[in-house]
Each structure stands twice: as C-alpha cells, then as structure tokens.
UniProtKB/TrEMBL annotation:
Protein name: Fatty acid hydroxylase domain-containing protein
Keyword Membrane appears in the UniProt entry: yes
Keyword Glycosyltransferase carried by entry: no
Signal peptide start and end residues: none
GO terms for cellular component: membrane
Domain annotation Fatty acid hydroxylase: ranges: 93-228
Length: 233
C-alpha cells in the first residue's frame, strides 16, 4: 500500500517514466533468466534480429501504457484491491490464475480462427522454434488485446494486491518457460499425474509447431476439456 500511496502523489509524467523503467526491468530480468536456462542446458543462444529488438521495445511501451491505465482505474475505484494478508490471498490468486488462463485461452483461440491471425497473430508465429525474446515479439494490437483482457478481469473482482503481484510474477515465468524452444523438465515430471496439466515449455512449443492445438497459457485444462490438446513431443 505504501508503494501505491507513493505513486499516487507523483505527476503523470513521472508515473509514465516509473512504469516504463519497471517494464524494462521485468523484460531484462526475464530475458536473462531465459538465457541462463539455455546456457545451463548447453543450448545454443540464438541470435536476435534488430526487428525483434524494436518489437520488444514497442511491446514494453504499450505495456507501460497498460500499467498506467490500470493505475488510473485503481485511482478512480474501477479496480479494487485488498491489502490484508489472509487466506483470501491464496483464493484470490487461484481465481485470478484460472480466470486469466480461461480468458487468454478464449482470446488466443479466437485470434487463431479469424482474420486476426493473418493480420495480427501471424507475426508471433513466424517463429516455429521460439526463443525467450519472442515472448515480447508481438503485433501491437495483440499486446493491447491481452492488456485490455487483463484490465477487464482485474476490474471484475476485488483481488488481493499480493495475489496480483504473485500472479504477475508467475505470468512472466510461464511466458519465458513457454518460449525456451526446448523442454528443460524431465519426462518423470511432465507426466506426473499432479503436474501434467501445467503449461510446460514443450506444451507451448507444440503450439508453435502446430497452430491448431494447445491454446492455453498456464495449464492444458481448457485444451483438454475443449478438444484442442496435443501431447507433448
């Protein structure tokens, strides 16, 4: 709450700068995390083109605008946050996690089965073997779409602030893992009855190899229920 109170006292220009630095730091940290995993498993670190760098920067600028929009919605009480540390933190996290997983599945499925794929989402799918930076290589309209989805879900329920932070952290981790281009987890883990429903690296890699399957992000639950699941390679 002290952080939000501090931000609430800043000018709009300073807020934009703070949110831009925040997004750039998150991106840099996540890319470093991805590269460290690749080196740990002795996977050749892929080269990055200038267009990928520019799209990554553009994604960060749009995410900064989305962050500012979310803060404005909180200032004007469209987004309600609870700051107590209680059992609500866990339940709110689970609700947010599953709600976003379903919402992103629907959005992802939709852009694959409409003209939006050729016009927008096809940019991301030019990478059949994704690398960490490809998490941020998105068409601007797709970044806006995912951001709007996030703000709608966040506005629909009074989530615990710490649950939101936990979700955002896990969101970045899943995003990087999904764009490693290989599966770092042993088969004994990915086929474990309690863990096989998670959206692992190979789960999303299969989606880049076959665009007609595996539309989920964090889990394979909705793909399994709705008949779009494909086994990991």
């Amino acid at each position: 709450m002290n952080v939000l109170n501090f931000l609430n006292q800043q000018s709009a220009v300073l807020l934009w700068l703070i949110f831009l630095i925040e997004n750039l730091l998150v991106t840099a940290t996540s890319l470093l995390f991805g590269l460290l995993i690749l080196r740990r498993y002795k996977i050749q670190v892929p080269s990055v083109t200038s267009s990928e760098y520019w799209l990554c920067l553009l994604t960060n600028l749009i995410n900064t605008a989305i962050t500012y929009a979310g803060f404005w919605l909180w200032q004007h009480h469209y987004i309600r946050l609870e700051f107590s540390v209680s059992w609500h933190l866990l339940s709110d996290f689970l609700i947010l996690f599953l709600a976003m997983d379903l919402a992103m599945y629907i959005f992802h499925y939709f852009i694959h089965h409409t003209a939006a794929y050729k016009v927008i989402h096809g940019l991301h799918h030019q990478y059949h073997n994704p690398t960490p930076i490809d998490l941020y290589v998105l068409h601007p309209l797709e970044t806006i779409g995912f951001g709007a989805l996030w703000l709608i879900v966040l506005s629909a329920y009074g989530f615990n602030f710490y649950a939101v932070i936990a979700y955002l952290t896990l969101n970045v981790i899943f995003g990087i893992i999904g764009h490693l281009g290989f599966e770092p987890l042993p088969q004994s883990i990915t086929t474990n009855p309690f863990l096989k429903y998670w959206g692992t690296s190979s789960f999303h890699h299969n989606h880049h190899q076959d665009i007609n399957c595996n539309f989920g992000f964090y889990t394979s639950i909705w793909d399994r229920l709705l008949g779009t699941y494909k086994e990991r390679k």
